[in-house]
Amino acid sequence: MTPIRRQFLATAALSGAALAAPSIASAQTTRFNWKMTSAYPKGSPFYMDGPGSATDLAKRIREMSDGRLNIQVFGAGELIPAFEGFDAVRAGTVEMNHANSYFWTGKTFAAQYFTAVPFGMNFQGMNGWLYDGGGIDLWNEVYAPFGMVAMPCGNTGVQMTGWFKKELKTVADLKGLKMRIPGLAGKVYANLGVDVKVLPGGEIFPALERGVIDAAEFVGPFQDRRLGLQKAAKFYYTTGWHESATVSELLINKAAWDKLPKDLQAIVSNASAACNVISEAWCQKANSDAMDDLVKNQGVIARPLPDDIIKALRVETDKALAEAVAKDPVTKKVHDSYMAFMAKYNRWTEVSEGAFHNSVRG
């Protein structure tokens, strides 16, 4: 190579580096200021405060990005009403919303599957489907026509069936009962004669106390005790048939998401995955303590639902899902994926978790 040729190549390389450097530096120093709304009031444990909550998620993202992505978090009613997050993110009014996808079944029934399916999978199974069974990809496929992407960012684990003012003995006891219950479970109860109400968390206790409703489902022992539901009803039924692993959803405007550099997208995804696990771990500790207190110190009567009620709920669940699948090919695609994964997962748990609980734990 001639000296002139060598000098030309060296100069070109330096010029190229000089041109690329500002671009790289710009991507690494650009700051993004986003807004995130929630379906839950400011200060709500698990949802808004504490390990794995919306504010914890925002803090993790800010720290991991060294302040390049700052998210201002708004509780329900602060910026928009509790259940308007979907429309706000879709319109670009806010970049993010923290809630549960089953609130949006009026937009697309398939959203139900990404929160919880009655008689569905537990926390481990749900994570298996979402992260490794194609669930998240389907979630984003469902939301693509709305211009949004989503990912799991929390999980309550198994929830309680709920609080009832009167003892439940047979399916007939459900007829005419006024109950707060959201999602597909509400439709299932309605088919058995329940007068279903959908109320934000902050309105449940006064409605139950005043007799506006006769029963209510919220989350689990810790959250329910905080609302004071044990002061308005004493029968606390278990099984978690309706929400065996309730996923929190991080909903993001697709146009805003696409503007983030790849490293910031990775930070959001990894912070969300961390909160998904951390929040569920917090629930296990908080709920075990609260359940002890409710039963031992507050006169709560905790018991499983009678078998005939569970059987009736399962029959109505199967009918409701079949009806939804028949109406919508998108729902069918998600349903088939979920159910195929659950069938394999159930076979595995029979010889793993199931065997442990039945034989080892006792």
Question: What's the short version?
Answer:
This protein has 13 helices and eleven strands. It has 362 residues and is α/β, with parallel strands linked by helices. The longest helix is centred in the C-terminal third of the chain and has 36 residues, at 262-297.
What does this structure look like?
There is one protein chain. The protein is of the alpha/beta class. 50% of the residues lie in helices and 14% in strands. It has helices at 3-29, 54-64, 85-91, 123-132, 135-143, 183-191, 204-210, 221-227, 254-259, 262-297, 307-327, 329-351, 353-361; strands spanning 32-38, 69-74, 96-99, 148-155, 162-164, 178-180, 195-197, 215-216, 235-238, 247-253, 301-304. The radius of gyration is 24 Å and the shape is globular. The chain starts with a helix and ends with a helix.
